[in-house]
Structure formats: structure tokens, C-alpha cells
Amino acid sequence: MSDIGPKVSVLICVFNAGQYLRPSVQSVVTQTYRNIEIIIVNDGSTDGCMETIRDLADPRIRVFHQENKGKPSALNFALGQLRGDFYAVHDADDLSDPRRIECQLKWMLENRDLAAVFCGYDVIVKNRRQAPIAAAKDRDACRRDIAAFRMPSHDPTGMYRMSLVGAERYDPDLLLGQGFDYILRLGERFPMMVVGECLYSYRVHRASGTRRNIEQREQLVRGVLRAACSRRGVTFESQFPNCVNPGISRRNRDLDNYLAAHFIDSSIDLRRAGKRWLAIRTGLECSRLHPLDLDYHKSLVYALAPMWLVRKIRRVPM
Q1: Which residues, at least 6 apart from 58, have a Cβ–Cβ distance to it below 8 Å?
Q2: What secondary structure letter does DSSP report for 165?
Q3: Which among 286, 271, 300, 133 has a CA at the least distance from the CA of 200?
Q4: Class in CATH terms, 8-206
Q5: Positive or negative CA dihedral for 31, 44, 87, 182?
Q6: pLDDT-derived band of residue 251, with 50, 70 and 90 as boundaries?
Q7: What is d(CA 306, CA 124) in angstroms, rounded to the nearest whole number?
Q8: What own/partner pairs with CB < 8 Å and gap ≥ 24 does 82-85 have?
Q9: Residue 280: helix, strand or coil by DSSP?
């Protein structure tokens, strides 16, 4: 594509991304849509990862450095620097499909009322891309997700329209869950959609899950949900009765932020698309993650079960 068209700013916040930073940035540099600027904010990295991209001589790249303040602070700094009509988030260890910006921007330009467009994604586990989710969602589907306190898609897949969201910022106190909070706030005010293509790959570092991180993550997520309930005039206790007095768990699903749930959604999405063998393969890959944990076999069950049973259990529209 040519360089003609609205400018899109791609925000990459970096903290000790290691060997993954260079391929991550390269996946943005090689986008088919060329009129982009790439704003990289180094949030106090100490592992030398910034050295790995020093030779990427692309005039669209702008690099900034700050002391370690956390991802929301880095995102807010980047928002203050961007020059684009739209902005997209890209995590420093993930990969964007070459057509990601082009496809999302197309939807933005064809739907002038949208504040955000997301896309489908898969996960990178042990350097292998797995479990794609690529179902499109219209305004109503996204509105239902927001009403149910869910994100329409994974938060770093988002592209946003600056003319609508330019004054919004990420909560600097949310070192985890800042994207969830941001998307809920925007979705309560503006329409959103999801592109029906898998255009993003999210890298999963399962070994990083610790008991301390679980407690911190759950506490912050409860805070996000409490704030959303307050904005909507409902009580947290009525919406989430099982979360009022939560216990701390060391189950595998908690240690990896319930990765199995993504595989379940992928199996169902693939079944809906008529790709049953790929759904079965996805289920088998999930089972291999924790062979002795029944939670990690559910994806395979949904891949093999009759569709009438899947619809009954999960209430999935087909």
C-alpha cells in the first residue's frame, strides 16, 4: 500500500522484553499499511533488550525512555506523544500479522462512529502459535460483552479513534488490568466492533505466574469491576457474589490466568467455522499443557461433542 491515508500510531511499551522485542517490533515495521508511526517507550528495561533494535533504521520509529513506572504510565506517556488519527497497542513480546493495521483501519474508515476496533488472535506457547479465535463481532455483540463486564477481544488487539478517545487515559495505579479497565470505560460510552480475522499473536509466559502475582492480579481485577459497577449504579456484591470473599488458589488455571479458557473458546469458534479437525488439534494441544488437570481437557471435549450439546452447555449461537 502507499503512504497516503490517515496516520496510525502504534504504541509499544517495553520492560525487559528480552529476545522477543526485535521480532515484535519487526512485525510492526513490516505492516502492509505504511503510514504509521511506531512509538516505543522503554519503561526502565535492564536486560539490554533495547540494544537489539538499535539498528532498525526506520524513520517511523520514535524511541523514548523513562524510569520504570509500569505499563499504564508508559502508555499514557505514549498517548501524549502520538501524532496519529488512530492508535493501536502492540505488546513488546507479541506479533502482529502484516495486515493487522490495514484491516482494522479499513473497518474504522467504513464505520465512522466506532471508537475501537479489535481483531481475533491466537496464543504463542513454547514458540508455537495455537488456538486461533477469529469470530467477528458487531456493535450489539460488543455492547453485550461490555454489559457483562467482558472485553470484546484481547486488549492489545485494539485500535482506537483519537477524535473520540483522545482525552481518555489508562489508570496509572493499575499495573495489571489497565487495558480491561480502559476498554470497559470506553465501551460504556462508544460503539466497538471486532474484525473477524486472526491478526494478532499473544505470547504466553506461563512460568511467570506466582502466588504473589495471582493475589495482585485478582485484587486489581476486583477493583476494576467494583469501579465499573459503581459507574453503572449497581453493587459489586449483586453482580459478582462469588468474588466477595475470594480464596487464594494455586490451581493451574490461576497460575496461567486460565489459559484453558482461551483454548475452549478457540475450539468452539473453530467448530462454528466448520473447522472441526483444527478444533480437535487445538483441544489436544490444550490437554498436553496439563495432562492431569481436568480443566485442560475441556477444550477437547467441546471439539468432540455434538454441536447440540455444545449449544446447550455454553449457549453458543450457531
Answers
A1: 29, 38
A2: H
A3: 133
A4: alpha beta
A5: positive
A6: low
A7: 28
A8: 82/9, 82/11, 82/37, 82/39, 82/162, 83/7, 83/9, 83/37, 84/6, 84/7, 84/8, 84/9, 84/36, 84/37, 84/162, 85/6, 85/7, 85/8, 85/161, 85/162, 85/163
A9: helix
Residue 43, CA distances (Å) to 29, 193, 200, 257 in order: 21, 30, 23, 24
Give Cβ neighbours of residue 234 (< 8 Å, ≥ 6 apart). Answer: none
Q: How many residues does the chain have?
A: 318
pLDDT of res. 176: 85
User: Whole-angstrom Cα distance, residue 77 to residue 27?
Assistant: 22
For residues 221 and 228, give the distance between their C-alpha atoms in angstroms, rounded to a whole number: 11
CA distance linking residue 70 with residue 178, whole number of Å: 10
* DSSP run (H or E) holding 192: strand 192-203
C-beta neighbour count of 135 within 10 angstroms: 18
Rounded CA-CA distance 97/26 in Å is 11
List pLDDT tens digits, range 91-119.
999 999 999 999 999 999 999 999 999 99
Cα–Cα dist 182/229, whole Å = 14
Any idea where the domains of the chain sit in the sequence? Answer: 8-206, 209-248, 259-318
What distance in Å separates the CA atoms of residue 77 and residue 219, rounded to the nearest whole number? 25
The residue type found at 130 is Q
Q: Give the type of residue at 193.
A: M
SS (H, E, C) 18-46: HHHHHHHHHHHHCCCCCCEEEEEEEECCC
DSSP state of 115: S
